[in-house]
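Readers of this paper often ask what the protein records in our data store actually look like. An entry from our holdings is shown next, in its original layout:
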Amino acid sequence: MVNVNTGGQAINAAVSQINFDNQKLDIVSVGYSQSIFNLWTDEPSYSNAAGTVRFSGGLPSPGFTGVSGAIVRMTFRSKAAGQAAIAFTSGSVLANDGKGTNILDNLKGAFFTIIAAVESAKPPAAPSPTPSALQAAGQPVSIPIITDWPKELEEGSALTVKGLGYPNGKLLIFVQKGSADPVIEEMFAGSDGRFSYNFAKAVSAGLYRVWAKNVSNEGIVSGSSDIVTVEVVQPLFFRVGTIALNYASIIITLLALILLLILIILWIWRRIRKWQERQGVEISEAEKALHEGFEKLQSGLRKYVRYLTAAKSVEGVKRREADAEDDLAEELSGIESKIEKEIEDVEKVNKRRRHEHYGHDKED
């Protein structure tokens, strides 16, 4: 029977998981018809294969107050002689205070000694075999159960695990960090079978694995308990410092990449600007030559018009017209030559630029 003592406080809910030695015991039934709870979020259920019982239930306000409130009745059937442990692996009892305060302060399991049946038809009756005699006869030794351990510890903390073994029985505790050889220590359980083990060394950062084995009076060692893991981390100060350093290195790397990108962009912009400036010089020189040619042509035309109109006779006009044609042809030829030269310079520059660009592409 699973009972609850509320310690004078009203409760309205409880949740628990119970483990039992399924090598020695099987559950026949789990009953809750006489339970103090009438509401179940997870009805009592069990698994003989896993060796577990679970339940989660409650009742409306004003809840329950008492020293022995029945929650679940479990009926077991023995499978083999020996000692079998039944232990709570987790649990909570919630107060009826509107906040769901967990007031659980203690979980008590049970330890049973199962003896072989003696046939009454065979006088005289043989004395009931003791656990030691059964173990000596080849009966397996029940494995211990680790019920309480920290999931995470800070570096330098004490590692403590609790569990259930034989009453006053000897245990072997194994503590292994990573892939190193495990540290093995001996200890004894209390009269109720409970034990509390403290690792002798301060733990360092890493993953620890802990398991236990029972040892009979004859030195027979049981199988291993379930292995529990404990992750040991660095203190918060060092973790924050490491994170800060990692972020700083990332930021510095990003800044360096950004600076390099800016320098590349500036270099490309400077090259383009210089090319534009060089192109602009040649083009502006051609434009200047063209403007000068047109201005010279306009000036010459005005001069020749005045020169022709100043003639006094037809013969003079004809003579001056011939002279003007020769002079204009000479000036136009000079203007054309100068403009063509500037255009050729621009074409040469463009051709050289294209050649250089093509050469760079081939090298790349």
Observations:
- The radius of gyration is 51 Å.
- The first helix runs from residue 131 to 136.
- The mean pLDDT is 77.
- The CA atoms of residues 350 and 356 lie 10 Å apart.
